[in-house]
Amino acid sequence: MAARKKKVTLSEEWKAKIQAGAILSRLVKHVNGEIEMTASQIKAADILLKKTVPDLARTEVTGKDGEPQQHVVTWQK
What we know:
Layout: H1 12-31, H2 39-52
Helix pairs in contact: 1-2
């Protein structure tokens, strides 16, 4: 098989997504009883996930001076 002529490089965003997926996979295996993890490993996984996966906390978006924002949707002809 011929070698690739163009080297494939991943962005930092994709690397973080892959890392988060690996951490989640390991945690799921632990929950399902397939592997054992120490409390330290679980805490480390929790900390890493908090850095890579966005938190689903509630956020409020307001306009100028706390006023509501107005969104206008138009259709192009």
